Amino acid sequence: MTLKFDLQPSPAPRGDAEREAILADPGFGQVFTDHMAVATWTAADGWGDSAVVPYGPFALDPASAVLHYAQEIFEGMKAYRRADGSIWLFRPEKNAERFAVSAHRLALPELPVEAFLESIEALVEADEAWVPSGGETSLYLRPFMFANEVFLGVRSSRRVQYCVIASPAGSYFSGGVAPVSIWISRDYTRAAPGGTGAAKCGGNYAASLLAQAEAAEQGCSQVLFTDAIERKWIDELGGMNVYLVTSNGELVTPELGTILEGVTRDAILQLCPELGLTPVERRVSLQEVLNGLKTGAITEIFACGTAAVITPIGELKDVDGQYRVGSGEAGEVTLGLRQALLDIQYGRREDTHGWTRRIR
């Protein structure tokens, strides 16, 4: 199936001066561009009504299915402006494939990969002036899909709205890469076998917010969850995958199953042999982590995701105490991997993996 996302220009786009003022300090997820890409699916007719239209609110009936049964999914990705002014995406096909996996799990219609990519590229082309330049700035892209049939009944919606919005994003670490503290949750879990942990749906994030608030009360930036059955195997953070660097040169991350298959997570697994590291995916117990920090068998820990790329972890905390990671500072391996990924994304390093896709 081919969907065309033709542009319907906004009658009132922001002026150059206002846009440039925003791009000078965009923050994250606070301001949105002039347009959005949309498409509609119905059980009777399939996909249609696709276009790039002026950014604006949806009119939702109070009985819209998503408001009652949370049937929705989303993605997160970025467009990068390189030094020569060109604009590129990083592994958008992986986001498209994961979007389809999430849709299947939430009983939503799967959007073809080609249509997903077309919607992203059409929106970026329409709002290319919004892609910032310099530092680690980017245009954050948020594709999402939700059930909007007007019906109070527990079944798959027969009408679905797809949309992509975009927001300029500043450097995540504007003052330099800084290690964060992580709270180990003992009371809450984020996913269970057979659940939605491997899908990117809003309910997973809503379920993490109370634990995240608990982490904030303890002076921590994020929360680390353990598995839902034995409460002994590390899972992932509230919104990021986690990695351990060992003293024998392994880069260890929890295996897939109940965790999200992160695009950045996968890139790191493929990239680390080039930096002399051995990638390992397996179950990792919390006790192994704490013992490893004590003995020095684990030298660094970091989290990864689209927004921050790689975030060093300087300390773990729980009700029993605090556990410093290495020296407490960002480690050499962590910073090296982070720089390697950024260099590929911004075109400063040859992309030997075919990960980047030029738009303009």
Automatic annotation (TrEMBL):
<feature type="modified residue" description="N6-(pyridoxal phosphate)lysine">
    <location>
        <position position="200"/>
    </location>
</feature>
<keyword id="KW-0808">Transferase</keyword>
<dbReference type="InterPro" id="IPR005786">
    <property type="entry name" value="B_amino_transII"/>
</dbReference>
<dbReference type="InterPro" id="IPR036038">
    <property type="entry name" value="Aminotransferase-like"/>
</dbReference>
<comment type="similarity">
    <text>Belongs to the class-IV pyridoxal-phosphate-dependent aminotransferase family.</text>
</comment>
<keyword id="KW-0100">Branched-chain amino acid biosynthesis</keyword>
<protein>
    <recommendedName>
        <fullName>Branched-chain-amino-acid aminotransferase</fullName>
        <ecNumber>2.6.1.42</ecNumber>
    </recommendedName>
</protein>
<dbReference type="InterPro" id="IPR043131">
    <property type="entry name" value="BCAT-like_N"/>
</dbReference>
<dbReference type="InterPro" id="IPR033939">
    <property type="entry name" value="BCAT_family"/>
</dbReference>
<dbReference type="GO" id="GO:0052656">
    <property type="term" value="F:L-isoleucine-2-oxoglutarate transaminase activity"/>
</dbReference>
<dbReference type="InterPro" id="IPR001544">
    <property type="entry name" value="Aminotrans_IV"/>
</dbReference>
<keyword id="KW-0032">Aminotransferase</keyword>
<dbReference type="InterPro" id="IPR043132">
    <property type="entry name" value="BCAT-like_C"/>
</dbReference>
<dbReference type="GO" id="GO:0052655">
    <property type="term" value="F:L-valine-2-oxoglutarate transaminase activity"/>
</dbReference>
<comment type="pathway">
    <text>Amino-acid biosynthesis; L-isoleucine biosynthesis; L-isoleucine from 2-oxobutanoate: step 4/4.</text>
</comment>
<dbReference type="GO" id="GO:0052654">
    <property type="term" value="F:L-leucine-2-oxoglutarate transaminase activity"/>
</dbReference>
<comment type="pathway">
    <text>Amino-acid biosynthesis; L-valine biosynthesis; L-valine from pyruvate: step 4/4.</text>
</comment>
<keyword id="KW-0028">Amino-acid biosynthesis</keyword>
<dbReference type="Pfam" id="PF01063">
    <property type="entry name" value="Aminotran_4"/>
</dbReference>
<dbReference type="GO" id="GO:0009099">
    <property type="term" value="P:L-valine biosynthetic process"/>
</dbReference>
<dbReference type="GO" id="GO:0009097">
    <property type="term" value="P:isoleucine biosynthetic process"/>
</dbReference>
<keyword id="KW-0663">Pyridoxal phosphate</keyword>
<dbReference type="InterPro" id="IPR018300">
    <property type="entry name" value="Aminotrans_IV_CS"/>
</dbReference>
<dbReference type="GO" id="GO:0009098">
    <property type="term" value="P:L-leucine biosynthetic process"/>
</dbReference>
